[in-house]
Amino acid sequence: MVLPRLLSYESPALSGIEDPSVSTSEPPTSAPQVSVVIPALNEAGNIGRLVDETFAAVPAAMLREVIVVDDGSTDATADEVRQRLAVHPRLRLIRHSKPNGQSAAMRTGILAATGAVIATMDGDGQNDPRDIPNLVGKLGAPGSSGPALAGGWRVKREAESSKRLASRFANWLRDALLKDECPDTGCGIKAYWREAYLVLPAFHGQHRYLPALFQSYGHKVIYEPVNDRQRVAGVSKYTNLGRALVGIYDLIGVRWVRKRTRWPEIVERSGASQAPLDKAP
Asked: What b/e string do you get for 261-272 counting C-beta neighbours within 10 Å, with b at 16 or more?
């Protein structure tokens, strides 16, 4: 996987606003701290509205930060986010120098995140941030035996009939080969443990196979119905043919990874405290 070059990194700390990773005015809470990561490519007209909706929909005690990763947009995507940095102190903007794909943009945001739980959404506004609290609530505590990923399931799709049919076929084919029992792997809204994500293999198109990869690494996953909305501005970055050609190539690779992965169940940890999985011992 080619690492994206960052064109700029804008956060509360760089904007003269309190850095949420340093301090917070929120009262102590047992709720998981969630970093919402939104990859975006040429989503002017959508991204600003989505950012505002997210801060309104996710309880302040739960929300650690919202990170928008601009994957090399050539429109006013970054400007829409910058205009809101002073309004939302927990908003952060990271920009890639050129497009690297949705999986790379998600990984950039997750590596920068400070929350124990990650929630991801597409930047086009078709995912509803009001579904985030419910998805997060379905997770087990990080490191527990509970679900490590809660994926959205668009029971009522708003896309045109051709995309709905293509999605059904893709889900059937993927499940036939991977046996992940995921009804809607293309749904962008998901919540999952950050530490579990960080040990997964990184590759272009990874975001479409997160449920299968989480399962391959010994984690439970669940699926929850979520709202699906129509795009307000801009155009889709995918075509049915283009997604199918790339998807088949990726599917073969993920099937190989799934069959070759062994993730042992640990029954005891004794002695000195263990370093987190995403850090060197």
From this structure: eeeeeeeeeeee
| Lowest pLDDT segment from 29-38, 127-136, 225-234, 252-261 | 252-261
β-strand pairing of 147-153 with 220-225: parallel
| Chain centroid offset of residue 187 CA | 10
Residue 202 tokens, joined: 């990184």
- Return the pLDDT at 27: 38
6-13+30-260: in CATH 3.90.550.10: yes
Cβ contact 74:42 at 8 Å: yes
8 A C-beta contact, residue 61 and residue 36? no
Tokens standing for residue 112: 């920068």
Q: How would residue 65 be classed by pLDDT, with cut points 50, 70 and 90?
A: very high
Q: Which residue has the tokens 């929300």?
A: 63
Strand partners, 65: 35
Q: What distance in Å separates the CA atoms of residue 180 and residue 203, rounded to the nearest whole number? A: 19
CA count, 13 A, side-chain hemisphere, 218: 11
Residue extents of the structural domains in the chain: 6-13+30-260
Report the C-alpha gap between 85 and 11 in whole angstroms: 8
Residue 66 confidence (pLDDT) above 90 = yes
pTM of the model: 0.77
- Sequence-ordered list of residues with C-beta below 8 angstroms from that of 147, at least 6 positions apart, any chain: 138, 139, 140, 219, 220, 221, 222
The stretch 22-31 carries a mean pLDDT of 43
Return the half-sphere exposure (C-beta side, CA atoms, 13 A cut-off) of residue 278.
16
